[in-house]
Amino acid sequence: MTDQDLTAARRSRLDLYTEAYDLFDRYQRLQSDRFDPDITKLLTETLIIPASTPTLFELFCIFRILRYLNEETPGVQLRPLADESTALAQLETDDRRIEIYHDQNGAIGFHETLDPDVVPAHPTFKRYQDALVDYTDALRGLTGADQDPVLYSGRPDIVIEIYDTNALDAELVSVLIGEVKYTSAAQTFRQGLEELATYRRFAYHDNYLVDDTDVPITSLLITNGYSTAGTTDEITHLNGNELLTENVGVLRSFATELLTSNPTIGP
After folding, report:
1. pLDDT in 10s for each residue of the chain, 267 residues
2. What is the reported pTM?
3. How far apart are CA 189 and CA 78, in angstroms?
4. Which of 40, 57, 86, 183 could join 107 in a cystine, given CB atoms 3.0 to 4.6 angstroms apart?
5. DSSP 8-state secondary structure symbol assigned to residue 132
6. In whole angstroms, how far apart are CA 152 and each of 31, 149, 205, 212, 234?
7. Over the range 142-153, which residues count as b (16 or more CB within 10 Å of their CB) and which as e?
8. Chain Cα centroid distance, residue 10
């Protein structure tokens, strides 16, 4: 579309063309981050809903956690993301940077391929290795897909990283990893618990996420309607409706202690 076409549409006596010009003009200003009064009004009155309810629930959990960070952290401000960033959001204080990642847009993931030169000593693990090789061979023969046997692949629904910006190079001081299951079923709860326990192990392995074992990781499993009676030191389970309350201890601790120079929450 040329400038001449746009001028003709703007001056047209037909409402169809003038409305089309107005919409295209708004789109261009949105793309160039020009938040004129009409653009601001449009954004405040527009509700964008994800296509799936589980994704909406994940985003609800993320923004509730961010509310705790905002309430407990003096001076926290939302910062624009760099073009190359894959973070969902970034917050800053005078001496901390908080990066928030969501599974839909994050680049953080754990991936382990099979080393064919390593033969497991345990026969069960050896059978599993052979089955993976058989699978990839069959996949290649049937579909032409060429891939290495994968021992494990996955990534958390939520990752929040806390950096100390007082250091010359921003230093990672704390991490929260979260798995969200939009379910009240016990089987899905167990699946999420297993996934989160695996993420914790991979986070410290080969510097996947954390290159210093002294950096604490807070692990959070959030479900929708499933209740648990007990507790565990390594993983905290929350029913989603608990996020609507003002007294979620693990989030208060994450917000207050992880943003100090000497965090005390252990892995």
Report:
1. 677 777 877 777 777 878 887 888 888 887 777 778 887 777 777 766 667 888 888 888 888 888 887 777 767 777 766 666 678 888 888 888 888 888 765 556 788 888 888 888 999 999 999 999 999 999 999 999 888 888 888 888 999 888 888 877 888 888 889 999 999 999 999 999 999 999 888 887 766 777 777 888 889 999 998 988 888 888 999 888 888 887 777 777 777 655 554 443 333
2. 0.72
3. 33
4. 86
5. H
6. 39, 9, 13, 22, 22
7. eeeeeeebeeee
8. 42
Name the token pair of 236: 């905290």
Tokens of 121: 């000593």
Q: Say which amino acid occupies 107.
A: A
Q: How far apart are CA 152 and CA 162, in angstroms?
A: 27
| Dist. CA 143–CA 60, nearest whole Å | 39
